[in-house]
């Protein structure tokens, strides 16, 4: 009898709460759209936030409710867009595959150092101090972008510059945000010509600071005036699609190599 | 008067976090931003008030008459786990924005030991029904005050020059200790 009472009481309590919960679950059931789960399953689930939503779950909800297009996941690319579109029963839109590219070639040997930087080992802090390079526009080489990358698609080269591993880069844009000098930018993979410099110094100053700097000589812009302009002592590609392939060699006459085609390996 | 003393003492003097050192896990885990800390505090207060009511009922109408006080811990775990589930379902149904705002903190309350501490302390102190309710609400408000205070300090701490070895949980625990010492000053208020 003495053992029976606690067993029965606790059993009754357990049943009471269990049935209470079952009842509550029936009454308070929230009918979620089953497609949300399927769409979430198709997303990369890295929760990188590149889409602008709080995470892959929130992105999935927005996609199902029609607030976001099936191709709004920048990290997933065309595959994910196709899968999501399949679940939602719509036709996938074209996704332009992009990659992060570095606009600096200030390697250890090319760029002149003006000082030794011993402060906090982050680009952000070094940028506040002006950095250790004579060029105040170039890569600080402390790897904020590498640490920001959620896909381990970047590493610091021996040259002191970050390298983007093209196969792993999903163009989420975290590195673009992380760089205090705005040296990284997302470009379509089809764009194979890039200005590897962001220095706005006048030609002689820029060249003194870095062997690979753009000195605004204008050779590239004279070759294709409709697609390349010189502004603030810096060459800028306004529309890469207007650059005819036969002009590429002419552009690559650049005396410092600050503009040119991407090499397959190494150049990010 | 008696009720007011219990209310004030559970908020300031016998603060669950700073006096009993209960619920340190959410106190440290969710005190990085003031907004989140406040949401957590509100959720805990809500669950504490409910737990106080239900655990009192079970204690007085079931456990004490059958002389089963030794089963208090098991019974209260049952109560807390079910209540948190129920609250979660209820909020999800009635107010999706609130559900979104509370997020993971709601289910986390299940394993928050200050809720358990509340149920056990209330029965230890042999409070009657109104006293238990006031004690529960007061303890919840006390938790909210403590966690929001902590979050406000930790937001500033982010910028402070903290020695490498003390970064993170270390400095947070030291700060908790100092706040607890400061709260000791309230203990002279009620004899």
Task: Please outline what is shown here.
The complex is a heterodimer of chains A (268) and B (191). In chain A, 32% of the residues lie in helices and 11% in strands.
Structural description of this entry:
Chain A has 268 residues and is an alpha+beta fold. Chain A folds into three domains: 54 residues, Electron transport complex subunit B, putative Fe-S cluster (3-methyladenine DNA Glycosylase II, Chain A, domain 3, Orthogonal Bundle); 92 residues, Alpha-Beta Plaits (2-Layer Sandwich); 72 residues, Alpha-Beta Plaits (2-Layer Sandwich), CATH 3.30.70. Chain A is built from ten helices and eight strands. Chain A has a two-stranded antiparallel ribbon. Chain B is mostly helical. Helices cover 73% and strands 0% of the residues of chain B. Chain B starts with a helix and ends in a 7-residue tail after the last helix. The model of chain B has no long low-confidence stretch (mean pLDDT 86). The chains are: A alpha+beta (268), B mainly alpha (191).
Topology, pairings included?
The complex is a heterodimer of chains A (268) and B (191).
Chain A: H1 4-27, H2 34-42, H3 56-64, H4 77-88, E1 98-102, H5 123-129, H6 144-148, E2 154-156, E3 162-164, H7 174-178, E4 184-188, E5 193-195, H8 203-209, H9 219-223, E6 228-231, E7 234-237, H10 248-251, E8 259-261
Antiparallel strand pairs in A: 1-4, 2-3, 5-8, 6-7
Helix pairs in contact in A: 2-3, 2-4
Chain B: H1 2-13, H2 24-29, H3 34-63, H4 72-94, H5 96-102, H6 105-108, H7 113-124, H8 129-157, H9 169-184
Helix pairs in contact in B: 1-8, 3-4, 3-7, 3-8, 4-5, 4-7
């Amino acid at each position: 009898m003495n053992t029976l009472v606690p067993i029965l009481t606790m059993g009754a309590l357990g049943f009471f709460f269990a049935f209470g919960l079952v009842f509550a679950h029936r009454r308070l059931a929230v009918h979620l759209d089953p497609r949300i789960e399927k769409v979430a399953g198709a997303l990369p689930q890295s929760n990188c936030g590149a889409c602008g939503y709080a995470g892959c779950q929130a992105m999935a909800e927005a996609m199902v409710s029609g607030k976001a297009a099936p191709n709004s996941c920048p990290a997933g690319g065309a595959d994910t867009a196709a899968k999501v579109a399949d679940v939602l029963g719509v036709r996938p839109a074209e996704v332009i595959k992009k990659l992060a590219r570095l606009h600096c070639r200030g390697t250890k040997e090319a760029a002149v150092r003006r000082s030794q930087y011993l402060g906090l080992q982050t680009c952000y802090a070094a940028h506040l101090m002006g950095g250790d390079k004579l060029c105040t526009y170039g890569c600080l080489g402390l790897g904020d972008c590498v640490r920001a990358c959620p896909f381990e698609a970047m590493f610091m080269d021996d040259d002191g510059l970050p390298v983007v591993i093209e196969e792993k880069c999903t163009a989420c844009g975290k590195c673009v945000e992380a760089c205090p000098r705005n040296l990284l930018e997302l470009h379509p993979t089809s764009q194979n010509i890039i200005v590897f410099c962001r220095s706005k110094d006048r030609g002689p100053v820029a060249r003194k600071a870095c062997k690979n700097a753009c000195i605004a000589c204008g050779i590239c812009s004279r070759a294709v005036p409709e697609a390349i302009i010189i502004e603030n002592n810096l060459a800028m590609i306004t529309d890469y699609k207007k650059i005819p392939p036969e002009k590429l060699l002419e552009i690559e006459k650049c005396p410092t190599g600050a503009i040119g085609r991407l090499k397959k390996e190494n150049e990010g | 008067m008696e009720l007011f003393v219990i209310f004030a003492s559970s908020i300031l003097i016998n603060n669950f976090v700073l006096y009993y050192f209960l619920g340190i896990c959410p106190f440290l885990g969710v005190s990085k931003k003031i907004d989140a800390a406040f949401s957590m505090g509100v959720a805990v207060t809500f669950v504490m008030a409910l737990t106080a009511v239900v655990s009192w009922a079970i204690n007085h109408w079931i456990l004490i008459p059958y002389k089963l006080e030794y089963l208090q811990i098991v019974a209260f775990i049952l109560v807390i786990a079910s209540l948190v589930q129920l609250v979660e379902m209820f909020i999800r149904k009635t107010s999706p924005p609130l559900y979104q705002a509370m997020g993971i903190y709601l289910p986390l309350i299940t394993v928050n030991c200050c809720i358990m501490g509340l149920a056990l302390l209330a029965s230890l102190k042999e409070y009657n029904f109104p006293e238990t309710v006031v004690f529960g609400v007061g303890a919840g408000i006390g938790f909210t005050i403590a966690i929001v205070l902590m979050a406000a300090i930790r937001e500033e701490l982010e910028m402070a020059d903290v020695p490498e070895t003390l970064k993170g949980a270390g400095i947070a625990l030291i700060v908790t200790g100092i706040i607890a010492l400061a709260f000791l000053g309230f203990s002279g208020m009620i004899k």
